[in-house]
Amino acid sequence: MTEEEVAMEMEAVEAVYGDEAVIVDSYPPHLHLHIKPRTAEISSQQFVEAVVRIQAGPKYPDEPPQISLIESKGLDEQRQKLLMGFVQEKASELSSSLMLVALCEEAVERLTIMNHPDGDCPLCLYSLFPEDGQSNQMPFMKLMSCFHCFHCECIIRWWNWLHTEKEADSQNGNSRSVDKSLGNCPVCRKVVHASDIEHVLGLVGATQSSQHESGLLQGEEGEDPVLQSESENMRRERFEAILKTQEEKGGLVQPKKNISVVPGMYLPPPPPPASSSSNQEEASQSQEQEHKEAESETNSSTSNNRRGRGRGRGGRGHSNVNIRKQNPQDPRKPTKQWVQRS
Amino acid sequence: TLASKIINEKESVPLKKKTVKSKGGDASHTFILSFSAMTSSSAPSRKALSKIACNRLQKELTEWQLNPPTGFRHKVTDNLQKWTIDVTGAPGTLYANETYQLQVEFPVNYPMEAPQVIFVPPAPSHPHIYSNGHICLDILYDSWSPAMTVSSVCISILSMLSSSPAKERPADNDRYVKNCKNGRSPKETRWWFHDDKA
């Protein structure tokens, strides 16, 4: 490889990454790459980011460049190591061919897979991203002002509570100024605007606490083939939609199955429906579902829009509500689909 | 079945009633008592905890057992809604080697609403602790946040004890305690927090 070829490669890196790549030296190549997960430019959904240094010696590309992490946000130590490990592995794999762009791509790709917050939801204290594969995962979000993360449902419940409180206070003639569009982050008390959580209101409003509760109950997990296939269809639709947007934008990327791209939040796969074992139980269940149905009808007018927006870009899973909504003419009918006879 | 019942249960969020009728106290921390609504929902209720509250408290208890805050001991009972906790004054402070008992009661809507935290008399003699066990500490009332836990509250209380300049009661102790007869909850009091020293 000649120096010229390497120089051209560096130009390519600059062209692809623009401001995200800081060229420290053009020969031997040395650059800092600011990487963010691929979330279709939706920053509210980015829970991690990193700056990676790629530094090659004069023997590049016969000798792979050194790769290290200069800076990272939201990544615990384990994921930092993993990320570097993957990129280094890629480097030795591609040894003796020009690899800078490929390495950058690998880094972004891997970071995208690791795009989740660390630790527990400060409100319910259950993990935001259970890695044991056992626990049911719930959608979560971050507050844009302070980056604190919560389960969508938990933060919405808190938000609603807060404003019910404020209303009660003002009705009692308290002079405290009441602003319904403001709150404070439960963790750091930084001001939260209604618009910071608006994007999840629609998604959570209608499901109420169903996901939360089902997530905490083990067992009773039936597999409904109809649900399975429907959710698969939805998923495929979403991937197609995002692929299209990326093609339109001239993006280079094929979406991957594990990339999550719903505005502002991470949607887990839908929880399997609870199955019941006797007719009596079945009856009471569908009755309750009817009740819920009625509830979700009342706020569907406001939440439909938002949900619709999310549907186009969704990358992974969706909530029960979306499916139920597919048959809005007769709210009672589709509930039948949900009950598995055994 | 149980699962489907719980899934479909909608959480009710009762309103908190606060009434301000008269103002009292002129010490570093004044208070306003509400004389009506003694049955109010902000008093610790005998009603069962919500499912959310239960899950959260179980989680807190597990975490406490793994990693209890230094100086505290939770007395094991089967009552999740009411915890009794022993606190021992930190070494090198006015309360070193003294042990007091805290009683923590959780409202139905915990953690949206703060727990009621009081010392079981005899309460430590402290400028912010009344002889009936009520504690004047902002995070227990207006500054409560649902991201706080029993453990973090305990740490705040111990730090309040540790930073005490003198073992004495609040200046308005007698009047306050007299007004709080009949086991009134400190959450009924409208606290004004002026003093940030302790």
TrEMBL record, chain A:
Coiled-coil segments: none
Low complexity bias locations: 275-287
Keyword presence, Flavoprotein: no
Cellular component GO terms held in the UniProt record: nucleus
Pfam family, one: RWD
Domain called RING-type: residue spans: 121-189
Protein name as catalogued: RING-type domain-containing protein
Native organism: Brassica oleracea var. oleracea
From TrEMBL, chain B:
Enzyme nomenclature, EC number: 2.3.2.23
Lineage: Eukaryota, Viridiplantae, Streptophyta, Embryophyta, Tracheophyta
Family stated for the protein in its record: Belongs to the ubiquitin-conjugating enzyme family.
Key words, A-Z: ATP-binding, Nucleotide-binding, Transferase, Ubl conjugation pathway
Ranges of residues in domain UBC core: 52-198
Alphabetized GO MF terms: ATP binding; ubiquitin conjugating enzyme activity
Active site feature: 136
Protein name as catalogued: E2 ubiquitin-conjugating enzyme
Coiled coil: none
Keyword S-adenosyl-L-methionine in annotation: no
Chain's role: Accepts the ubiquitin from the E1 complex and catalyzes its covalent attachment to other proteins.
